[in-house]
Design a protein that fits this description.
The protein has 14 helices and no strands. The protein is mainly α. It has one domain. The longest helix has 29 residues. The chain binds Muraymycin D2.
Length: 359
């Protein structure tokens, strides 16, 4: 909105020329989202406490988690609110990709909100059924994928990291591929959100990485130099990524160990879908498996644990899945698990950025 209101005034106030620059608006979108979370955080925590939206802790979890019972959850409402307000404030509102990213984020937040509400407010221990949640996620992801493919000049070739020559064109099949990326990312972040700050930290790292990808992908000269896909208009999505990272930092202020608030499914499902949607828009879809490699590792630990359990009638690979619980049960203090997982996330993000040159 500010772009439309203030940039046109640059002819009389030259300083307003700065509003044309994506870099400037990305920085301030990030700071705006951070400040909204930072300022509203205490009020939201207090409101959730009064509404008794406190986390129920399942007995079968690690003993150390029992003391977390009652921690306010559904803090993802604050994250999503901050991202939407900041994005609307700082982006070019005629950009279709921005609206697609907001639609996916808001839609997945709504699914998570219903699940949290049923579980935490209506005290229905299971919330939405796993199948029901997956159907809703898939439908929304298919709509997101279709909108992306329908965007003028969108290229339905899939980018294969490191292999410049190999880039298969999926045509309309790209909608299914995009939906898989979005739903997969959403659920992987959800599984990871099991320790204080464990999901939001890598989300900030991934959002910052895709902020860079979106900027270079939307810059015709840099995209040409790097020999990556040029996606006209994807630069504005860097501002959305900046808002994601800023809101994440603001939320981390309160979700840091010992957490005063959890994000809930409303946060984890929406943040994952936001990263998946941005990965599709910037044509760095498969690379998300590296940028968000920590989320992939956590999801795979569950898949292998459940698969092995079924194959061996009760055998376990890990002491408990997802992987963060395995290290907790090995005796690592929670903060040590969290920070070491953040370190891995940073290393994977740096590796993913190197693929822009290694082609
Ligand atoms: C999402 N939710 C956390 C919080 C957060 C198939 C199976 C692997 C599913 C998985 C599961 O239930 N996943 C759901 C993870 C939960 O966090 C809430 O959920 C929101 C995210 N969706 O925002 O509201 C608990 O995580 C802890 N937490 C923190 N700090 C945070 O900032 O400490 C969360 C955020 C919270 C709190 O204790 O209650 C979760 O862990 O459920 N199931 C599991 O992950 C369970 N694993 C398991 O059963 N493993 C089995 C099989 C099935 C693989 C095995 O290894 O044999 C573990 N989680 C729980 N109990 N709660 C262990 C058992």
């Amino acid at each position: 909105m500010l772009y439309h209101l203030l940039y046109p005034l640059h002819t009389s106030i030259s300083a307003f020329n700065v509003f044309r620059y994506i870099t400037f608006r990305t920085i301030y979108a990030s700071l705006t989202a951070f400040l909204i979370c930072f300022v509203l955080g205490p009020w939201v925590i207090e409101r959730l406490r009064r509404m008794q939206v406190g986390q129920y802790i399942r007995e079968e979890g690690p003993e150390s988690h029992q003391k977390k019972a009652g921690t306010p959850t559904m803090g993802g409402t604050l994250i999503v609110f901050s991202v939407i307000v900041s994005t609307l404030l700082w982006t070019d509102l005629t950009n279709l990709y921005v609206w697609i990213a907001l639609l996916a984020t808001g839609g997945f937040a709504a699914i998570g909100f219903v699940d949290d509400y049923l579980m935490q407010v209506k005290k229905r221990s299971k919330g939405l059924s796993a199948r029901g949640k997956l159907v809703l996620q898939t439908l929304l992801a298919l709509i997101t994928g279709t909108l992306v493919v329908l965007t003028p000049d969108f290229d339905t070739h899939v980018t294969i990291p490191f292999l410049k020559q190999l880039s298969p064109d999926l045509g309309w099949g790209y909608v299914l591929f995009a939906a898989f990326v979005v739903v997969g990312a959403s659920n992987a972040v959800n599984l990871t959100d099991g320790l204080d700050g464990l999901a939001i930290g890598p989300t900030i790292i991934a959002a910052t990485t895709y902020m860079i990808f979106a900027y270079v992908t939307g810059h015709v000269k840099i995209a040409d130099y790097l020999q990556i896909n040029y996606v006209a208009g994807s630069g504005e999505v860097a501002i959305f990524c900046g808002a994601l990272a800023g809101a994440g930092l603001g939320f981390l202020w309160f979700n840091a160990y010992p957490a005063q608030i959890f994000m809930g499914d409303v946060g984890s499902l929406s943040l994952g879908s936001a990263l998946g949607t941005v990965a599709v828009i910037t044509k760095q879809e498969i690379l998300l498996a590296l940028v968000g490699g920590l989320f992939v590792i956590e999801a795979l630990s569950v898949i292998f644990q459940v698969g092995f359990f079924k194959m061996t009638n009760g055998g376990r690979i890990f002491r408990m899945a997802p992987l963060h619980h395995h290290f907790e049960l090995k005796g690592w203090p929670e903060p040590k698990v969290i920070v070491r997982f953040w370190i891995i996330a940073i290393a994977l993000a740096l590796l993913s950025m190197s693929t822009l040159k290694l082609r």
